[in-house]
């Protein structure tokens, strides 16, 4: 791994993840085990990605894949993908219909994965380049690992995993070197304390209007939304029009979770008030404000905020969620970012006066906590910052997991 890429301090656990959905035949793990993928962060693009192997066991291909919670399908570059077990999906087939294939694609070159005729085409979208294209739908084996929270138990081949084959153009700019859930999750230094027992939950909500680049009228969004009711700074409500936190008839508004946005983006009205109130609270704590550093609107002298287990000692920011006393608390490690020596900034950005979504909760605010997306129950479970427990996601290295 290059120096610009490190194991990230972020773990996602998906309940009934795409693996079980995408496989044509049902795939079941033993009880009390979870699927585990290592998640890494590209320090240049600030994007999160994972690595897995696909293809027949004799000639697997290593895949680096961007983690995009809003993606409609799994896709990757098949230019160097070689596998005798790969099968394309024909136009009009049941597999094509289930994957919402809408076009037929062909290829005039030598047949290979990603280059076939009369093949089902599904849309693949690069959110960094805002590039959309139809790509060949196929299926193959994917190698996964299971864990009991302590160590790697077994490796499995998931058969008939569906994905689309991207071309070189669409993968440009993406990071990389070229489930199931429910716990337990044991984080060093403790080998007996299951972090999943501390989870609080909030409903996942559905935006009735799709946010995908291509969709049919009446389609709901595939992205993950939660219901933020209020924002508080050190217990004081940030005052703004609460209508911005709900969807209007066109699906505009609300709060979504994104792993492709590095820092949380807020509607201008929310952003300006948040910055104003945070600066006021920081002043009370004798934290000195300094000249802002783009794209951030408020920066401070980091020497005036002592370091704690949870980062710089700055005012706490709470996202008040649906559910009794449910709060997504942001301590200094998640609310601030060090931009240069002795200068830290409030790690939120202005999302504009007319954004599609009022709050886009970005990767920096998600780091060092466990998130469990329970799609069967339509709820999000999450832990507090693991730094509170004197641990972090980067400490989670089950034995036998490749670094």
UniProtKB/TrEMBL annotation:
Residues 1-22 form the signal peptide. One of its GO terms (biological process) is proteolysis. Keywords: Secreted, Signal. GO terms for cellular component: extracellular region. The keyword Electron transport does not apply. It is found in: Secreted, Extracellular space. Residues 48-383 form the Peptidase A1 domain. GO terms for molecular function: aspartic-type endopeptidase activity. Pfam families: TAXi_C, TAXi_N. InterPro entries: Aspartic_peptidase_A1, PEPTIDASE_A1, Peptidase_aspartic_dom_sf, TAXi_C, TAXi_N. The keyword DNA damage does not apply. SUPFAM superfamilies: Acid proteases. PANTHER family: ASPARTYL PROTEASE-RELATED, BASIC 7S GLOBULIN-LIKE. Belongs to the peptidase A1 family. This is Peptidase A1 domain-containing protein. The lineage of its organism: Eukaryota, Viridiplantae, Streptophyta, Embryophyta, Tracheophyta.
